[in-house]
Amino acid sequence: MQDNLDVVFVHGLFSGPATWDSIGSLMARDSELSFASAYRFSYASPKIRFRPDRRIPALDDIADLLKAYLHDQKSSHSRLFLVAHSQGGLIIQRYLARMLTEGRGRDLARIQGIVLFACPNTGSEFALSLRRAWWQRHPQEQTLRPFNDLVTDTHRTVQNQIVNAAEVGSSSCRIPIWVYGGTEDNVVKRASAQSTFLHAAMLPGDHSRIIRAASSDDAVYQVLRTRLFETQAVYEAGRDSSRVKSSKALEVPPSTHLGDRARAQSFLRAFPPLAGWLRHLRVQDFFTVSGKVNRLLEEGMTRMTTNPIQYVDSDLRNAETSCLEAGGRLMQGMLDLLFADPRAASGAEDLEHPEDGWVLKLRVHQPSVDEMRLHGLRDEFFETYDVLVNLLNERDLIDHAQEQAPKGRILQEPPERKKEARLTARLEGYSGRYRLIVSNTGTSDILNVSVAFPSEASSFRLIDHDLPIDIMRPGDSVRLPVSVVMGGGKGIFDAEITGSLEGGGTVRFFSKISI
Questions:
Q1: Phi/psi at 408 (5° precision)
Q2: The pLDDT of residue 100 is above 90
Q3: Residue 490, SS3 per DSSP
Q4: Given 305, 333, 339, 477, which residue has the most CB atoms within 10 angstroms?
Q5: Residues 331, 281: Cα–Cα separation, whole Å
Q6: Between 467 and 118, where is the model more confident?
Q7: Burial 60-84 (b: 16+ CB within 10 A, else e)
Q8: Which fold has domain 5-250?
Q9: pLDDT tens per residue, range 236-261
Q10: In this predicted structure, what is the pLDDT of residue 490?
């Protein structure tokens, strides 16, 4: 029994052991997997109970049932490998967390690995309102709702004391966990299926078809087969009581804490340096912004701020904190200053993420000034982002084989934008107390700035001004007191703003003024 690897399969909600028939049959016929035997764990998961003397078991009940199965019925089996689909993954994680709470981390050492298919680690929003109506008191369905407290606490325990455990002890036991989502799965989407796990990937299929294997060539069987071979290779090599993966699966420098590596991988999945949307945001002009860029930035921020894993390396922790704080300010600035134009969202409802079809535009009250503000927030974000990515490079926490980031140092300064001259003017104030705000919203210094008004603007004149202005640098604004006589002359006209450039030449701009 010592050399045999017992693979225990755990089904999901409203399902049963037959879920695994196709994979079990393939394993039985696979001569190269003679070291592995398939077993199916079963539990009650009815949609409804009609008998008042019976109840539907809750997550903790099933976790303890799994404990009895593994420790009593499988007590003579020294090596286990757990495989789960959907809710089955939550059951396994809850079992692990409860064992650690009981101080029985060493008893988990015989579990050689875990594979989770389409597990709702952060819940499922699919048909949520209908589920709440139909199964209002169903204890198993309740744990599948987004951000369930019990599931969140369990997930945090598993990440910190299982995935990133440094040793086998009473309250920790490192077990490799691989997670997979379905490319067509709308029940458990990628973000929930992969969550913050280090080894995460996608497989073809929807929520149910992801674990159906018609032949040994199907992706799900090939993935599981590879994980079993790797686990057996580790055992045969006698590496640290089978607690360390084969070098092909994971190569961790001895000086690198596993939690730092997991956090770094999560950050690089949320904000991949080579991703087109992130490179576009680097040079975004902010007069119009793609809804997809906005969505991916928000998803990345949410993913990292809800990640329970934290860096052990204080330099990495401080660098990421600065980056996420700057990203939060950029998100808030975009939320404050941009609006979605519904006229530009034709056909967006047909997209997987309808917001990807939106076009976000600057609000009309002071577009040039707002654009400069967003430029500053964006540049601050990327300055801190580049510092963090460079640190990850130095700590060897970036997998260059996966093309997560370019080798060596990346940009430390925001990309230089084309020099451009731009002056604007706008009126603010009320009841005769007005100011004309002249702003340099371009990227060049402008000298000898002056303002003039057409003859038809007889109701409008500057008072106590000091024109021309010697120099206006990018971002500068000057407030000029004005006198307005209501009822005289035109109420709408163009103000002419002129100036000269340091290298020679003059510039002239017009801004519409409305009294």
A1: 80, -170
A2: yes
A3: coil
A4: 333
A5: 12
A6: 118
A7: bbbbebbbebbeeebeebebbbbbb
A8: Rossmann fold (3.40.50)
A9: 776 444 444 444 444 444 445 556 77
A10: 61
pLDDT tens-digit series, residues 434-450: 788 888 877 788 899 88
Q: Give 449-470 as a DSSP string.
A: EEEE--TT-TTEEE-S--PSEE
Predicted local confidence at residue 3, as pLDDT: 72
Q: What is the mean pLDDT of residues 173-202?
A: 91
Per-residue pLDDT, averaged over 145-166, amounts to 88
Q: What end-to-end distance do the CA atoms of the chain give, in Å?
A: 89
- Per the CB < 8 A criterion, the answer to whether 117 and 85 are in contact is yes
pLDDT tens track for 316-353: 888 998 999 898 888 888 877 776 665 555 554 555 66
pLDDT reported for residue 432: 61
- Rounded to an integer, what distance in angstroms lies between the CA atom of residue 88 and that of residue 59? 10
Element (H, E) at 62: helix 59-68
Q: What angle do CA 53, 11, 172 make, to 5 degrees?
A: 100
- Number of helices (H), then strands (E), belonging to the chain: the values are 13, 17
Question: Tokens 């064992």 correspond to what residue?
Answer: 99
Confidence bin at 286 (pLDDT 50/70/90): low
Q: Is the pLDDT of residue 269 over 90?
A: no
Cα 439 to Cα 476: distance, rounded to the nearest angstrom: 6
Q: Range(s) for CATH 2.60.40.1230 in the chain?
A: 423-514
* Dist CA 5 CA 112 (whole Å): 9
Average pLDDT of every residue of the chain: 80
**Quick check: 267 and 395 in contact, CB under 8 A?**
no
CA dihedral 343→345→350→356, nearest 10 degrees, is: -170
Q: Where in the chain is the domain with CATH 3.40.50.1820?
A: 5-250
Q: What is the DSSP string of 179-242?
A: EEEETT-SSS-HHHHHTT-SEEEEESS-TTGGG--SSTTSHHHHHHHHHHHHHHHHHHHT-GGG
Residue among 78, 8, 2, 7 at smallest CA distance from 43: 8
Is the pLDDT at 428 greater than 80? The verdict is: no
Locate 307 and state its tokens.
């990640």
Fold entry, domain 423-514: Immunoglobulin-like (2.60.40)
- Give the span between the Cα atoms of 133 and 111, in whole angstroms: 39
Please report the pLDDT score of residue 257 as a whole number: 57
d(CA 422, CA 477): 12
How far is residue 96 CA from its own chain's centroid? Answer: 26
- The pair phi, psi for residue 93, each rounded to 5°, is -65, -35
Helix (H, G, I), strand (E, B) or coil at 416: coil
Q: What is the pLDDT of residue 307?
A: 67
